[in-house]
Write a structure and sequence with these properties.
Layout: H1 3-11, H2 23-45, E1 47-54, H3 59-74, E2 78-83, H4 102-110, H5 128-139, H6 145-154, E3 158-162, H7 163-169, E4 182-185, H8 187-196, E5 197-202
Parallel strand pairs: 1-2, 1-5, 2-3, 3-4
Helix pairs in contact: 3-6
Length: 203
């Protein structure tokens, strides 16, 4: 056997532990490639869904939340909105009343009673700011928040209200707006929706 043939034969022989040199690196590369493929599969499995968590009770932020929700719904995405803490005040109906205890009444007096009473996050100016924004929206033909909420219901946008937040704020189901796709739930529902959504964020 020629010297070169002996060398080539030796190079192909297994090492002392029974593995072929370079096989470990090749296996790692294949595993990485498979992991990338699995990530792609997970993304494909995510539903065409948007979940928005609404924690703010500011007019401008809630308008933004509904603008995004309506835009997504217009593209045939399933949209879920989870209202918690200060955001729940936007869904109160000022025409409805509910029997409450003293502390619940106190929170009710301090919190905005409905979307028309929401403050701005900046330049609120003792309630003048929201009126100015609403006036500008009307002047420029921008849909009001109240009409956005109505349109969201017509487009099938689902609204979930955090029951824990309602209990802390002293809000009752009887005083919430009439909305076709409204449910009361806990944080577990939000987590479930968020995990199934392609996009999820809080405002």
């Amino acid at each position: 056997m020629a010297l070169a043939e002996v060398k080539n034969s030796t190079d192909q022989e297994p090492s002392n532990n029974g593995s072929v040199p370079g096989a470990s690196t090749s296996l790692e590369a294949r595993i990485e490639a498979l992991e990338e493929q699995l990530e792609d599969i997970k993304l494909d499995l995510a539903e065409d869904m948007l979940t928005i968590g609404v924690i703010s009770g500011d007019l401008d932020r809630i308008i933004a939340a509904f603008v995004i929700a309506l835009g997504a719904a217009a593209y045939d995405m399933e949209v879920n909105m989870f209202f918690t803490f200060w955001g729940t005040a936007a869904l109160r109906d000022p025409k409805k009343k509910a029997k409450k205890k003293f502390m619940e009444k106190m929170f009710g007096w301090m919190m905005p009673k409905g979307s028309k009473k929401l403050p701005l996050s900046n330049m609120n100016m003792a309630g003048v700011g929201p009126k100015m924004i609403r006036s500008l929206m009307k002047k420029h033909g921008v849909t009001s928040l109240e009409d956005m909420i109505k349109e969201a219901g017509e487009l099938g946008v689902k609204i979930y209200i955090c029951e824990m937040s309602m209990e802390l704020m002293g809000f009752k189901r009887k005083e919430m707006i009439d909305y076709p796709n409204l449910e009361y739930c806990g944080v577990g529902t939000y987590m479930g929706l968020a995990s199934q959504s392609k996009q999820s964020f809080f405002l």
